[in-house]
Amino acid sequence: MSSASSLASTLLRREILDLHAYHVPDSAGYIKLDAMENPYLLPHALRGEIADMVASAAINRYPDPSAASLKEKIRDVLGLPDGMDVLLGNGSDELIQFLAMALNKPGATLLGVEPSFVMYKMIATFTGMRYVGVPLAEDFSLDLPATLAAIRREQPALVFLAYPNNPTGNLFPADAVARIIEAAQGLVVVDEAYYAFAGNSFIPRLAHYPNLLVMRTFSKLGMAGLRLGFLAGSTAWLEQLEKLRLPYNVGVLPQLVAGILLEHHDVLLQQAEQIKRDRAALYRQLGGIAAVRVYPSEANFLLFRAANATEVFDGLKRRGVLIKNLHGGHPMLADCLRVTVGTPEENERFIVALQECLRHE
Ligand SMILES: *Cc1c(COP(=O)(O)O)cnc(C)c1O
Questions:
Q1: What ranges do the domains of the chain cover?
Q2: What residues flank ligand 1, with Cβ below 6 Å?
């Protein structure tokens, strides 16, 4: 062992040494259906408008630290009432990190359901926060009695619920989520990363629940490359969380480009509508394949189960299609795969490749 590696393993925290880094595979040359990205580029005219703005952007200067103009546009699009504001993050992953850092008093617990977005648990580990995962029911529906019992027992300081859930795709019933918010003494964050594909939101209820914040990201809506997410909620919370934000966490170009895109929000929403139609078609096609069980989804991806998922995943990859293999992660996801809804052509290529794999394996 080199002296650097022995030194690193002596000095680093045990939890960090035990972690597996979040693995992002090389996707060059593949039909990329693994990361819930929007498959569409922007219309040509809009790209031209962005190019002109970027050409004259002051990238020699630090960005506006408060991102006032962008925040104003987000507030307008959301129609936030008085007393409510937004806090911007370098992707919503960064916001999860702020929340864990801010609420991690000694012995504090972060509670989530499982399987869900892996970053909740990973960030609890990064920050040394205790983590409790409540299993979903076998069909991935919310186990409300078990979740309420865990909240009473564990008294979590922070609860995350992805709405719709990733990687299962389903939208938990709004009244069940409301029961959880009411039962929790701690802060509940409803993570609406897939809002554009579902339509339901807890933003209208922010004023009703003092322990609720809603988190959204622009990533799944066609701006994954910008790295921008936000928390919406009461200024009483956001003013405090703001203290954790590093001064220039959102760069000049993301502020600028997201600002332009919010003025053309309708373009992104039209793309989301197209993706929803294609999701329905892909769901029907997967449902027609006897060797596959597909789960209903309100997001821009579909979860499905196939015997020997890893062989199917490898077979798809050999045929040039990259999806996400969930087998080997959470035990409830044994033999599960997740495919992002792409363009109609990409979806077709995926279905053809999947049928070939199932015939040969
Ligand atoms: C993708 C995803 C995010 C993270 O989005 P970024 O803004 O790209 O960091 C957060 N929550 C859920 C549930 C997601 O699926």
A1: 12-41+267-360, 58-263
A2: 36, 91-93, 117, 162, 166, 191, 193, 217, 219, 229
Kindly report the CATH class assigned to 12-41+267-360: alpha beta
Q: Which of 246, 257, 261, 278 is nearest to 344 (CA)?
A: 278
Strand 324-325 and strand 229-234: the pairing is unpaired
CATH code of the domain made up of 58-263: 3.40.640.10
Distance 92 CA to ligand 1 centre (A): 6
| Backbone phi and psi for residue 228, each to the nearest 5 degrees, phi listed first | -150, 125
| Span from the CA of 3 to the centroid of ligand 1 (angstroms) | 37
**Sorting pLDDT into bands at 50, 70 and 90, what band is 1?**
low
| pLDDT tens sequence across 19-51 | 887 778 888 899 999 999 999 999 999 999 999
- pLDDT per residue as tens digits for the range 245-279: 998 999 999 999 999 999 999 999 999 999 999 99
DSSP assigned state of 166: T
